[in-house]
Amino acid sequence: MDHFYALIMAGGGGTRLWPLSRKHRPKQVLPLTEERTMIQITVERLYSLLPPEHIFIVAGPDLAEGLHMNVPQISADNFIIEPEPRDSGPAAGLGTFMIAERDPEAVIAVLSADHHIAQEERFLDSLRCAEHFARKGQIVTLGINPSFPATGFGYIKRGEPVGEFDGTTVYRSEGFHEKPDAATAAAFVQSGLYSWNAGMFIWRADQAIREFTRQQPNMARDLLSIATSNGHGNADMTWKNIDKISLDYAIMENAENVVVIPVDMGWSDVGTWGTLFEVLAKNDDGNATRSTHSAHIQIDTHHTLLVSDRMVVTIGVDDLVIVDTEDVLLVCHRDRAQDVRNIVARLREQGKDDYC
Prior knowledge:
Elements: E1 4-9, H1 38-44, E2 55-59, H2 61-70, E3 79-81, H3 88-102, E4 107-112, E5 116-117, H4 120-135, E6 139-144, E7 155-165, E8 168-177, H5 182-191, E9 194-204, H6 205-215, H7 217-228, H8 235-240, H9 247-250, E10 258-263, E11 267-268, H10 273-279, E12 288-290, E13 297-299, E14 305-307, E15 313-315, E16 320-324, E17 329-333, H11 340-349
Parallel strand pairs: 1-2, 1-4, 2-3, 6-10, 12-14, 13-15, 14-16
Antiparallel strand pairs: 4-9, 5-11, 6-9, 7-8, 7-9, 8-10, 16-17
Helix pairs in contact: 3-6, 3-7, 6-7
């Protein structure tokens, strides 16, 4: 696996985890699921598979310094800077083109900086299998075995088996499906043929570049220009010309030779307070806490998430999210956790950027 690399996508703003996650302190550098930050967990789980010099991180200039402080073992040269957010398609493309400039034989695992993975050995075994098949010319995606009919994730349908590696079976992909309605999601799960699309892709760099060239020729031309100039010259202006588009839309939905590895590894994207609640350990009343304070008092309180570093007292409440920071207190029903990002949009409309 001398030519195997990881490209960690770390550019998201984490607005659904406001007010803890802010522009100057996004969720990637927060200790959400344990005492280590999300970026530290993401990098360190790869150490038994990859040397630090084969781990790259793509992020904006305002995030790179903070990320590097969290993972100083990753060289500053391995931080790939996107001048401004252009969505996951250009970000993954930029990383792929730049790694290919260093190693034309590279196989790259495109991963996220903010995924919780409870069963890390299964994840690493899946990456080993994915590298094997990517080396042979497949574009591999890790599909998550669905635990419920989620409407917040896209899905991947699997077809016939194409092979096996070290006990892991790989299937031909029969297509990506956007976030479904409840009835469609239930049918997907009942069929047993669908996996959640977690946005983890493993590809040979030269094959990915061919897909970008075939499907997004203008983007590929600009990415090549930036990669070969090593970020100098008119790189920032070239980057601004690239369309904002997700990796799924830009490449994956119409890519050739796509296969899927269905895997059950205790995965969560930790994208909202609701998903964080599901990941954390619960007490006898079903409450979860992330705190440095041990003296919270909870009376007749059930299924509530509490994030605070000072004492909080709750009486007779259920199914809440309570997030207490130095300057903001958030209280919402767990079922409305997705709506937190709307608060950030409203604050920006009102010119209250200091709270974002």
